[in-house]
Amino acid sequence: MSTKKVYLSYLLDENTPTYGGRNVFKALKKADISKGDVANDTSIETTVHIGTHIDMPYHFFEEGQTIEDFDIDFFECSNVLYIDMKPQSLIIKDDLIAHLENVENRDSYQFLVIKTGICHQRQEKEFYESNYGFHPDLAQYIRTNFKNIRILGFDSISVSSITDRMLGREAHRVFLNPTAPILLLEDMDLTSLTTTSKINKITIAPLRIAQCDGLPCTVIAEVL
Fold this sequence. Notes:
- By secondary structure, this protein is of the alpha/beta class.
- It is 14% helix and 27% strand.
- It has a single domain (4-12, 48-223), classed as Glucose Oxidase, domain 1 (3-Layer(bba) Sandwich), CATH 3.50.30.
- Strands 1, 4, 5, 6, 8, 10, 11, 12 and 13 form a nine-stranded mixed beta sheet that branches. It has a two-stranded antiparallel sheet with strand order 2-3. A two-stranded parallel ribbon has the order 7-9.
- Strand 10, helix 4 (165-176) and strand 11 form a beta-alpha-beta unit.
- The radius of gyration is 18 Å and the shape is globular.
- The mean pLDDT is 97.
């Protein structure tokens, strides 16, 4: 069976949803051919935690790692564990563990991708006002049982459900703990994937901003 390449990341534009609807992306034309200028020249105003983006440990730890601390191979994964599930509650924990308990060859995986299905509601308010989050206890479970997982990616807008922001902050801290960080790739575009999809390879290309806490990403996957 042949593979195809697909984007698992969204375009950024002024309709891009943000956590709690607090921020916006702005593209500002500083020069415009249609108005007589020699060339088009666009500036942007944005938070780095927007669209498909990856959280760095520095997001929650003053001495946490940034993009400079990870080599290029870190962001290319050929052993991807993909799970398509319908969460039982807004805080994901036991139902995900039930899926993970059935996985064999656990130490072979480097990247865990979770599709909750909320990506299909991205243009609705519930996407950013009542999003799925991940329980902090999952971080230790993954570290113990999937020792080589280095990135957790998912289609929810944040690891933190806005319905329980205190728990969400703790989730950020335990996943991003600089001693053994599991980076968080949030707001992935998983609309093209189904329950039977198999991801052969993922390449993540973060925007390389020095000493930054989060980075918008382009994500490309080879999918069966």
